[in-house]
Amino acid sequence: MACYICDKHQAGDGVIAADDLMVLGHVLPDLADGPVYLGHLVVEPRRHVQGLADLTPDEAAALGRWAAAAAHALQAEHVYSSIVGHRIDHLHLHLVPRYPGTPRDYWWPRLDEWPAAPRGGNAEVTQLVAQIRARLDAPGHDR
Ligand SMILES: [Zn+2]
């Protein structure tokens, strides 16, 4: 059965970093049908599983490590995280940074409704992915 996330892993689209168990990526402008909120990352198990309850202990540990490392690399004022899963039945943990200066009225869950929120298309996402990858690779960054 076709799965958007399994296909994405296969193609390598939006991938920032990965290991045997998890893939860290940035949401793609094509799925969102236009510019996306910059820094909206997803941590996804390589294995096609639906929910947290389906993870092995090693996958669960890896999910936590990747989420923490990604949140650190985002260098945001705060990082929100959530698992929703209404559209795609392959587990994915959303990580959404709140940037300094975001008005209180637009804090979670309205971050991307802020007219001045940083958004971008493929070029901006590619640039940010490179920055985040460099921060993840910086010395002293365990994951
Ligand atoms: Zn899948």
TrEMBL record:
One of its GO terms (biological process) is nucleotide metabolic process. Residues 35-105 form the HIT domain. GO terms for molecular function: hydrolase activity. The keyword Hydrolase applies. It comes from the Bacteria. Keywords: Hydrolase. A motif (Histidine triad motif) lies at residues 90-94. The keyword Hydrolase applies. It holds the Pfam family HIT. PANTHER family: ADENOSINE 5'-MONOPHOSPHORAMIDASE HNT1, HIT FAMILY PROTEIN 1. This is Diadenosine tetraphosphate (Ap4A) HIT family hydrolase. It comes from Actinophytocola algeriensis.
